[in-house]
């Protein structure tokens, strides 16, 4: 089974695709809040034709162990975990792809260890001004704490794009329902407490930024601001935005996501 | 001449919503053992109404109290009536919750199941 033990002693699960011995660039996928590696099920094999792909379960999610102190409630802690998994797998300068909360995690990892990250892909994960866009504040967190499972399900149901097939939407929701409520609430805190605007000037690698045009949690306005800020510093970027798509482009419209995101990665020589 | 958009507290709106909810399969799946009364109040006029869900019936009314009440202005109640998600209105602080917050959030999914039927595409 694909597990590694991190320097913190955590048993960490990952799914993988693509030949890791063929000299391919490693691509590490980090899921969003209340999700796990299964959220990349429609992308893993496609990207595995071009990269050595590793889809992680963050601590407390999916089949990874729970940290001794309980689930991580901030993105830098999850970022340190991702870097430890990269070490344990012996990966050389991977591309990091993060969805939603995972976008903050991979950005934090790149800020912590810029020399170890080849490039970044933000999948509805380029989140600045998250309080304005997502509305998280202490009062809202008090509400979410009461019933994180239903809170996420309703959030996810209202975050789907208008072009999303109903069966696919159910699949995305059911994936999220597998998350332990305590972990789901920790994710809300991690997402709501993360301020990507504070580390944008530490990012040094090329970035692909993709967005569903109908995402209201990490809206296109936020992603465009991140794109503009990176470009102003001379960081190579590609920005993609798809109509009729919500917060989960890789799951809602995987055929479009896979082809166009791969093309963007190739444009940046990633 | 333009017609003012519907508001959730317009006469007949909630009874019609209750009829749609009574016939909806998604609501049916989530109202097993339900004992829910959702209150609504116009923050400017004080007008009140509620919609109640049990395993057998879904009905609307105006008299009596609800354990918790969504409170919003005309704009918020119009947005609700047009299908704008209630959870987004709460996060935007355009809709607040008075009363038993715990009872409200414990029934978050059932509230969504009913109020999503305000959207025109769900009719």
Notable characteristics:
heterodimer; A: Rossmann fold; 42% helix; B: alpha+beta; five-stranded mixed beta sheet; 22% strand
Describe, in plain words, how this protein is organized in 3D.
The complex is a heterodimer of chains A (270) and B (123). Chain A has 270 residues and is α/β, with parallel strands linked by helices. Chain A has a single domain, classed as Alpha/Beta hydrolase fold, catalytic domain (Rossmann fold, 3-Layer(aba) Sandwich), CATH 3.40.50. Chain A has helices spanning 44-48, 75-89, 101-112, 130-134, 138-146, 148-159, 166-177, 181-193, 220-232, 249-252, 254-267, and strands at residues 3-5, 11-17, 26-30, 52-56, 95-99, 119-123, 207-212, 237-242. The longest helix of chain A has 15 residues, at 75-89. Chain B has one domain: Nonspecific Lipid-transfer Protein, Chain A (2-Layer Sandwich), CATH 3.30.1050.10. Chain B is 36% helix and 22% strand. Chain B has helices at residues 13-22, 25-30, 74-81, 86-91, 101-106, 108-115, and strands at residues 36-42, 48-53, 58-61, 68-72, 95-99. The relative contact order of chain B is 0.21. Classes of the chains: A alpha/beta (270), B alpha+beta (123).
